[in-house]
Amino acid sequence: MADAVTPNTVAAVAAPHLDDGIVSEILCRLPSKDAYRLAAVCRRWHALLSLPTFLCRHLCPRPMPVLDDGPCAFIVQPRGKVGYTHLTMVATDPNGSVAVKLPVPEKFKDQPPPLPPPIVRMPRPDPLPDEQMFVGSLFDDTDDDDTEPPAVVIDPAPAPRAEDYVLFFERTVPMLDICIVASHGRLLLARSRTRYYVCDPAANRWIVLPTSTIAPVRDANAGIHYEVDASTGKTAFTVVLLLRRRLRRWLLETFSSTTGEWDAGELRAEGVARGLGAASPGVHVGACFYWLNRRSGRVIRYDAVRDRSSVLREPPLAERAVARVARSLGSVDGTGIRLSAYDIRDEKSHCMLPHDDVEAVHGVWFMEDAEAPRPSWRRVHEAVLEDLSVWYFNSMCDMGKPVDFPGASGDFIVLEQDWRRLLRYDLDSGRKVELFGLYRDTNRLSALYRRFHAFPFFR
């Protein structure tokens, strides 16, 4: 009896002269979608997609450029959703724009209004024979022998090819059904309902990470960091996941592109485990990752080199302030972390009903030596907003909430005004310029953008 034909034998017969190095080289040069399709040929080819050589070379086939300038745009994504819902690209330059048109899923579209009843029109009666002859004799001057000239068909000009980042956001993101959870420079860390992805949107490249112990859930704190070797030009990245466990313990899992494997461990840290959660995307500066703690007044720090975790205290409240709201964490050019928030001065803070005469102190702090044993905050901006109103349960009105993200510029921050507009706020002059309006035609889609995260985009 002849041997059974398996995928391994098919691959060996089809390409017996190709070793793993040649196959890996071919897969690295293909687009990401085609490379993962060919992985279904055999198990040997599928195993090549998890090797460190493929992970680094396919994601960055060419050396990444140095990020001298700030991001050309930032990505606005609704919070609290797993999988693709919708994204918005906003240019950091008020005079610029980003030509990305993202599809809207059907479940977030409003139902169309019912159609009006059809109008029934009675058919026109046929004309009498005499009328037909009379009309034809007056108006019909055509000659049966005359023929119309053939129509000239002009082929339309071919449409210009869209840029790689446009294809990534318009086609790849909905196809993979992913949402962004962290960023560092040009790379984005995204998750689907079952896996994690590392993406380079500017080149429309992405790779699938092996299955991790920590499932892609909303409560997992995630971060990503990459480095480019100056001598070889190769890129190596690291992914960090943190998840709260019972008994004040937390699960740590790291993935390195140099090994191609996850490294899981369980640590005990009382101060860190109390506030773990998706309060903000991960920010990487130096050798540490930072997340906003759900408990106001603290920032979580994880040192990837020393494998240690700690809690940084936020700057003290302003004089006569009773609470801090609208906290946002980011970084400035990769040199330090930046914190933006409002300190509320309210003599009726115990009242849960709407009231007026409330002051808010807008503060921006910067920390350069975040890796020091005792780092210190430096205030870089302070402004007092008067005559504000408080809605039910101490929710502020008429106040622009800061929207910070990793790799932002140190000259300005982005504010969200009235849940609809994104403003560029100059820290030196205090001038505000509108960047984008988040108002949507559909009510369901507008409700998604009541809470969102921002991520940088470098072209």
Write up this protein.
The protein is an alpha+beta fold. It has nine helices and 24 strands. The strands form six sheets. The chain has a five-stranded antiparallel β-sheet, with no helix packed on it. A hairpin with a 5-residue loop joins β22 (421-426) and β23. α2 runs parallel beside α5. The radius of gyration is 29 Å and the shape is globular. The protein starts with 6 loop residues before the first helix and ends with a strand. Mean pLDDT is 79; it is low at 1-17 and 131-140.
Element layout with pairings:
Blueprint: H1 7-14, H2 20-29, H3 32-38, H4 43-48, H5 52-59, E1 73-78, E2 88-91, H6 129-139, H7 164-176, E3 179-184, E4 187-191, E5 196-200, E6 205-208, E7 221-228, E8 235-244, E9 249-256, E10 261-268, H8 270-273, E11 283-285, E12 288-292, E13 298-303, E14 308-313, E15 323-331, E16 337-345, E17 355-367, E18 378-390, E19 396-397, E20 401-403, E21 412-417, E22 421-426, E23 432-437, H9 443-448, E24 452-457
Antiparallel strand pairs: 1-2, 1-24, 3-4, 4-5, 5-6, 7-8, 8-9, 9-10, 11-12, 12-13, 13-14, 15-16, 16-17, 17-18, 18-19, 20-21, 21-22, 22-23
Could you write a compact summary of the structure shown?
This protein has 459 residues and is of the alpha+beta class.
Task: Describe this protein with a few key phrases.
about 450 residues; alpha+beta; five-stranded antiparallel beta sheet; four-stranded antiparallel beta sheet; 9 helices; 24 strands; globular; disordered N terminus
